[in-house]
Amino acid sequence: MTTTVIPDELREDVETLWNFHRIDDPLRPVDVAIGLGSHDPSVAVYAAELYHEHLFPLIAFTGANAPTTVNRFPRGEAVHYREIAMDKGVPDSAILVEPKATNTAENFELTRDLLRRRAIDVASALILSRPYQQRRAYTTAKKLWPEVDFLCSAIQQSLADYVESIGDPKRVIDMLVGDTQRLTVYAQAGYAIPQEIPAGVEAAYNRLIAAGYDSRLIPTT
């Protein structure tokens, strides 16, 4: 039987990374919401909830497929997100689909280009993502689209509830570790703005790698 609980000996370190990556800006009206595709359908559900709160007139869902999403969303992440949002009452006229992005940089580059082609002026935008993707998404967006005032948010769930909803603690921990590494690696490569990594976050990250949560690390040599 597969457990959906984080092991007790890892919980504090996982919580440290989880809390660091969440930004959860106070919400206010923006020109557009940008929903980043992933394996997590809660992004589209949350986008629909906020649309009905009149926080934005338009949602742009972006994403093709990754190995972790092709089985769940065989026609592409953004396409399925659109359908989820429409099932939640968002009109088709309020949704744009960018179906080609295969990484976070492309999410923003291709969405930016789509909005420009539609002559949609964007001064402010709300990034909607997996809870632990917020910081990396923000650093990427500000590098590639610096003139926009970005906010970040995600479905309001505790770490334990989120892990249970995904059903795979190892996947969540591996992704947290991978996103922590990418903050530094991508900034050094010029793909994102730099972020200071607190000493406690760095220590938790290293302990989780030592515990074997390294499947989402990218080669650096």
Name the descriptors.
10% strand, 221 residues, 8 helices, five-stranded parallel β-sheet, alpha/beta
Distance between the termini: 38 Å
Instruction: Summarize the helix and strand pattern as letters.
Output: HEHEHEHEHEHHH
Mean pLDDT: 95
Major beta-sheet overview: 5 strands, parallel
Q: Rg from C-alpha positions?
A: 17 Å
- Count every beta strand, where a strand is a DSSP E run of 2 or more residues: 5
Shape: globular
Q: Which structural category do the helix and sheet elements fall into? A: alpha/beta
Strand neighbour order, sheet with most strands: 3-2-1-4-5
Individual helix count: 8
Hey, roughly how much beta strand do the residues contain? 5-15%
- Low-confidence spans: none
Which range best describes the helical content: under 10%, 10-25%, 25-40%, 40-55%, 55-70% or over 70%?
A: 40-55%
Can you give a write-up of this model?
- With 221 residues, the protein is an alpha/beta fold.
- The chain contains 8 helices and 5 strands; from the N terminus they run αβαβαβαβαβααα.
- Strands 3-2-1-4-5 form a 5-stranded parallel β-sheet, sandwiched between helices.
- The longest helix is centred in the C-terminal third of the chain and has 20 residues, at 169-188.
- The N and C termini lie far apart (38 Å).
